[in-house]
Amino acid sequence: MKNVFDYQTEWSGLQNRMARMFDPDSGRTVLLAVDHGYFQGAPAGLINLRETVTPLLPYCDAISPAIGGLKTSLDPKTRTPIILRATGGNSMRRPDELDDEVVTVSVEEMVRCNAIGFTVSCYIGLPGQCQTIESLASLSDEAHRFGLISIGITAVGADPVLTKFVKGEREDGGELTADDKKEAVRYLKHACRVVSENGADIVKTYYCDGFEEVVEACLSPIVIAGGTKRPTKEALEFTFNAIKAGAVGVDMGRNIFQNEHPVAMIQAVRAVVHEDKSVKEAFQLYEEISKG
């Protein structure tokens, strides 16, 4: 596992911000993604962003909102580190153009909002690949002058060939074939390496069978995306498998805030990430908290 605390050998703002986001004992992080509104509008679970976020803040190591959500729905007195969504310009109203993203938040605004870092989606293999990689590279260059953390996301947009890796099933709803699983590893290895080579301090990507190969090929530590909403136990299972394979944490949204019991779910995820609990143990914890 790539240890984020070995990222730099001398004291720096970047290293200090990494230490705020990653648990000093486990060396891992539970990042709560609530930026979905920047292209989805008002998805289930985020209609009232303040109401959703407030009870979850004590249990996440950092939170990732879009700029509007940060300014309207987060208490400015919160001590939870902020990872700010920095790109956008797309929406589900034009799903075929989800990879057409540009920079929407300046580094100056990140500093003004006291964010410790930012996220940028990179659409590797899609028409928007060049402009989104350029956004990552240029923002990383400028942000690193201020010691901010750059997180690059291997986004797949609405591309049917790539979204099956995220959903874990084919378009017809059937299970992925052996060839599909091999292709998922090949694609994610390529995408993660490209993102890390272009300045990302951390890469956010999707879990797949053979994830060890993806981790090995990436130059930066990897956190896994929660992806589409899944049953509680299934979400805990892929979290467990990803951590076992070398991921340094999760950046999870819908599988927490759309869960029937979000506070119980985020604590169960923490148990897997920070305490190395098994899926069975984490699910038992989830049931105990949700019934309490």
Short description:
The chain is α/β, with parallel strands linked by helices.
Structural features:
single chain; 292 residues; TIM Barrel; 8-stranded parallel beta sheet; 13 helices; 10 strands; globular
Task: Give an account of the 3D structure.
By secondary structure, the protein is of the alpha/beta class. The protein has a single domain (4-259), classed as TIM Barrel. Helices cover 43% and strands 13% of the residues. Strands 2-1-10-9-8-7-6-3 form an eight-stranded parallel sheet. Helix 10 (232-245) links the parallel strand 9 and strand 10 (249-252). It starts with 12 loop residues before the first helix and ends with a helix.
- How many separate domains? 1
CATH class group: Alpha Beta
Mean pLDDT: 94
Distance between the termini: 36 Å
Indicate the CATH architecture.
Alpha-Beta Barrel
Can you tell me the CATH topology?
Answer: TIM Barrel
Range of strand content? 5-15%
Sheet with the most strands: spatial strand order: 2-1-10-9-8-7-6-3
Q: Can you identify the CATH superfamily? A: Aldolase class I
Q: Helix fraction?
A: 40-55%
Radius of gyration: 18 Å
Low-confidence regions: none
Count of discrete alpha- or pi-helical segments spanning 4 or more residues: 13
Element order, helices and strands?
A: HEHHEHEEEHEHEHHEHEHEHHH
Query: Outline, from the CA principal axes?
Result: globular
Structural class call reads alpha/beta
Number of strands: 10
Oligomer: single chain
| Main sheet attributes: strand count, strand direction, barrel closure | 8 strands, parallel
